[in-house]
Fold DNA-binding MarR family transcriptional regulator.
Amino acid sequence: MSRRAELVAQLLDALRRTNALSVAMSQGAAERIGVNTTDLHCLNLLSDGPLTASELARRAGITTASVTGVIDRLEAVGYVRRERDRADRRKVVVTLQTREAAQVIAPVFAPFVRAWRGALDGYTDEQLELIADFLDRTEAVFQSEVGRMRAE
């Protein structure tokens, strides 16, 4: 096996292990926050900004019927607010309640963020650019493959 093939295999194995740990981290965080992992996933998606209910369902990979239950649960505990879309009253826009999220959710993830920052401390700016590029490419692969799986 060539050195490159060994490195690629090592990276693919590291991605697999990291993905498994990411799932475990999400499960642990969801338990601490008092929601399920799908609800936490939706909160994460909403941290980028308001989404219509149908867009939230699409991005989360769940049905529109399921997203209604997610929104109901998250609204009941004060993490999100739903409103009619001003442009199209048939649509519902879901907004993360940032103050509530900051009080309850942010402290659960703060130790992870500190640890991740610490893990990046030894890298040069050029290395960080390379890592950021790799993660952007990884995200694109995930998006493409999730779309392919849903289409099949």
The mean pLDDT is 94. The domain at 3-121 is CATH 1.10.10.10 (Arc Repressor Mutant, subunit A). The two ends are 34 Å apart (CA to CA). The first helix runs from residue 3 to 33.
